[in-house]
Structure prediction request, 212 residues.
Amino acid sequence: MTTMENDARISFADLNNLFGNSEPDQIRFRSMFAASHDDRLSAVNRAIDWIVLEHSKTRQHRQGRGEDALSIDIVTDLKALGFQASHDTQYGGHCDIVIEAKDGFLWIGEAKIHDGYDWLLKGFQQLDTRYSTGLPGQDAGGMIIYFFGHNLLGMMKTWKDRLAEARPDVEIAQCVKNPLILNSQHVHKGSGLPFRVRHTPINLYFKPEDKA
Prediction:
């Protein structure tokens, strides 16, 4: 049997195993072979989760940086993972993070430095009523919250309460796998379809106490 014939017999599971235990490689693989919009969304969420962890590890180098700089870092990482990502794309306005894929897939992330809950609410309203279309394959987005303060869990619990108070039409639930993440859903006014938003904070708190 020729080498080409051997290659033709490689299964999806074989390809998956080739990527080993590298999370970035797994993300690239899942994104590359995504067969549906749900698969593409799953790959995006997995990528965001990995980037959040990596950026938290290097939070000492991110102190004092602005929203655009922090968001561009995320877009750069998304591109390195194989996504068609961009910053400041104009879809209804200046979008912080945009990911596009085949069959009309569109994911928009609105990123805010936590500077009060009204500022976060403004970001949610921008994502919901300005940037998103709510159409099939474009019916999910993300809120990325850059948090330089302490007690990330407490902040997210307060954000959940404030969003519920301001937008009683939005259903909000704590993520089962990660208690720091919130998942929300509501009916998009434009499309009339359910619109899902994943609220993901990035821990950028850095005040070491080993030096007086």
